[in-house]
Amino acid sequence: MLNLHKIWLLSCLCVIVMIILYFQTEIARLEQNYRKLEYKLTQSQSNSRQFFPKTLEKDSDDLVVIYNRVPKTGSTSFVGVAYDLCKKNHFKVLHINITANMHVMSLSNQYKFAQNVTMWQEVKPALYHGHMAFLNFERLGTSTKPVFINLIRKPLDRLVSYYYFLRNGDNFRPHLVRKKHGDKMTFDECVEKNQADCDPNTMWLQVPFFCGHSAQCWKPGSQWALEQAKHNLVNHYLLVGVTEEMLDFISVLEAVLPRIFKGATEHYLNSNKSHLRQTSSKIDPTQRTIDKIQKSIVWKMENELYEFALENFKFFQRKVLMKENLGVPQTYFYEKIRPKL
Questions:
Q1: In this structure, what is the dihedral angle of CA atoms 314, 317, 322, 324, given to the nearest 10 degrees?
Q2: What share of the chain is helix, strand, coil (3-state, %, to 5)?
Q3: Active-site positions?
Q4: Do 64 and 128 form a contact (C-beta atoms < 8 A)?
Q5: Mean per-residue pLDDT pooled into runs of 10, the chain (341 residues)
Q6: 321 CB contacts (<8 Å, ≥6 apart)?
Q7: What is the pTM of this model?
């Protein structure tokens, strides 16, 4: 009789344990489903047009993006994507053409340009592009500021590309005769002979493009110009990508500025824009030439800016394109709004 009682108690205990395990499993499953539902709800809220105030929706139609493109950084390929998307996404693309391809504007034109860009409502939203130095809209008294973006390239790669571009042209306009057409001297020979076209000082372009219109910006080797370029990159540019990772640059822009760049990634992958402009007959420099160039102060400063920009881009790229530690892309939403809307 005692054994039967023990067996009965043991059986009851086993049943209780099984019930507890069952409910624990069900609770875990429900919690997991709840997290999935909560994430889907958050995503649907963040993607809903009604989630954002109407004033923000209106602001997106006032958007002005300025791409002060550095020569020979892949800018033609990038701008080609924008021109293909502008009709579909309902925005304007405008090329800034400065007399004699100058990279800086006169003071009067700086003021006129800043006022025009911010007040020309008929073309908004808009993407302006051109080979011009950064322009600080704050000092020009505008009530609003445009969004600046740019691409930067390894300085020696950019110089070599430009050197052969002037001699051999590119596949964008192959029949156009460039000013150094017929010159067969290689970049290595140019460096060996200390010619002006390959002088390290001619690399001084990306720093002043980010530095701006100050006279000090255009003095090769200026430490002040380098620090100002870094300051502007961090404080005035929404995003600065690198030529070597243009696809990721476009993908980040699509995620951050969909009003302009919606569909840009797919278009770039499936069109011929990724190879729109390539320098013809380019010869890579020898290690001896590379070593000689890299001894110069200008290369070191230009490369420091490039590395600085690359580090910043990688940081933003990880946050935008890759999942966070929680396994899902970062989002945000508003809650506990009082009084209720």
A1: 80
A2: 60, 10, 30
A3: 129, 131
A4: yes
A5: 68 76 70 50 44 58 96 93 96 95 95 95 97 96 94 96 84 50 85 94 97 98 98 98 95 95 93 60 91 97 98 90 57 79 72
A6: 248, 251, 252, 255
A7: 0.78
